[in-house]
Amino acid sequence: MEARHLRYALALAEHAHFGRAAGALGIAQPPLSKQIADLEREVGARLFDRTRRGVFPTAAGEAFLARARRALGEMTAAASDAGRAARGETGRLRLGFIASALLEPLPVVLGRFGRERPDVRLELHEMATSRSTAALVAGELDVAVTLGYPRGAGAEHLVSVPIGHDHLVVVVSTAHPYAGRPSVSVDQLRHQRLIVASGEDEPAISAGLRALLGEDAAALCGATVARDVHTIIGLAASGVGVGLGPSRMAAAPRPGTWLCEVTPRTPLPDLVLSFAPSERSPVLHAFLDVIRGSCPDVGAALDHRLDHGPSHRPGRRPNPPRT
């Protein structure tokens, strides 16, 4: 029994006439009569009464047609679901990310992806770079946004591309003497109460600050340690001290605070998007398309990585901040 047998039976029931049903199906009447007869032999029951007034389903035919309608509906839905899955319109995406990526660019990326793929289930996990790298390698994540290039076992096999560049800035309350200034110097920071972030993703930043201010800088020894950039901004707004963080803090302006540059300009590790090169998920590729459209200059680099494989060279590590 094939799907066409079900369609033929439903058309005959609708038109109550072999000729009209055959016309609607776009076939000749004799083949339709033969197919219905073959179907009845396979079912083992007469499905239609042939009368002078027309062709009408029997009791067995009514039972068969009810199931046939549902079966054809399921077949149509199955084909539709398969097509949507192949286009990345359904399924799930498991994303690991560092907290500061919620300043930029994730709000734009996730917002656009959610609008374009409302039926994709997003599984979002805030985690440090080392943890998200291990999860990617283990197949527990589809994609990750990390601070600097992924590090650790298996990281060299990932496809990675920068999606955001950053440099060090200062955030203070509007009551602080630095408020209103376009920039402050490193020498000025040595004499301030500083607020810095601490965590698994901060060694490169901490190393850069030590290189910038000096290994034994009193400002670093007495610094207030915050969990992440959001806490840095909150503490600075409270007048606790001078917060040091990435320039993308400007994407989350807070009343009562002021951001200014640090001179000399101090680059920070890039935000990096990574995924396994063997991953062929249509949902992942739909997400990468959104990245291309939302993050300037990423498209060409991403296409190059996809064409040439993992982006890590042997021994490659994130560059520390330069002074």
Q: What can you see in these coordinates?
A:
The chain is α/β, with parallel strands linked by helices. The chain has three domains: 3-86, Arc Repressor Mutant, subunit A (Orthogonal Bundle), CATH 1.10.10; 92-163 and 269-308, Periplasmic binding protein-like II (D-Maltodextrin-Binding Protein, domain 2), CATH 3.40.190; 167-267, D-Maltodextrin-Binding Protein, domain 2 (3-Layer(aba) Sandwich). The chain contains twelve helices and twelve strands. It has helices spanning 3-15, 18-25, 29-43, 59-86, 106-116, 129-137, 186-189, 203-213, 218-221, 229-237, 282-294, 298-308; strands at residues 48-50, 55-57, 91-97, 120-126, 143-147, 159-173, 183-185, 194-197, 224-226, 242-246, 257-263, 267-275. The strands form two sheets. Strands 3, 4, 5, 6, 7, 8, 9, 10, 11 and 12 form a ten-stranded mixed β-sheet that branches. The chain has a two-stranded antiparallel ribbon with strand order 1-2. Mean pLDDT is 86; it is low at 311-323.
